[in-house]
Specification:
The chain has about 120 residues and is an all-alpha fold. It contains three helices and no strands. The chain starts with a helix and ends in a 25-residue tail after the last helix.
């Protein structure tokens, strides 16, 4: 009886080692189909401009042969900061334009430089 248990355990251990070795050599099975080349699995809003919080909210899927998460997270933070800076500059410029008010309207003059009819001194007098 003891030899039967040793044989069964030996078969299970050898089978487990073969399965583990095959899994490591052949790679892991993919749980999702490969992404289309023209479509990213990461979604960004189409109905409004992308904001810094949109970029910070991105999460890129990780695989065994994937990317270094710390590098991509750093890159996303830099991108988010750049977008925030740009948005602040745009807001400041819009505020300056709003404070300046509408541009003064200039009166159109004929090409020869004479004042328009009814305006200014006449040379005939």
């Amino acid at each position: 009886m003891l030899s039967f248990l040793v044989v069964v355990l030996s078969v299970l251990v050898v089978g487990g080692l073969l399965f583990l070795g095959g899994s490591l050599l052949l790679g892991r099975g993919e749980s999702e189909p490969p992404a289309d080349l023209d479509r990213s699995p990461v979604e960004l809003p189409d109905d409004r401009p992308v904001t810094a919080d949109d970029v910070r909210g991105l999460r890129i899927s990780v695989t065994v042969r994937g990317y270094r998460m710390t590098e991509v997270d750093w890159l996303l933070e830099q991108l988010a900061q750049t977008i925030e800076d740009r948005d602040e500059q745009i807001a400041a410029l819009r505020a300056r334009v709003a404070d300046a008010g509408p541009a003064p309207r200039q009166e159109a003059r004929p090409a020869d430089g004479t004042p328009p009819c009814g305006k200014g001194a006449h040379a005939d007098a």
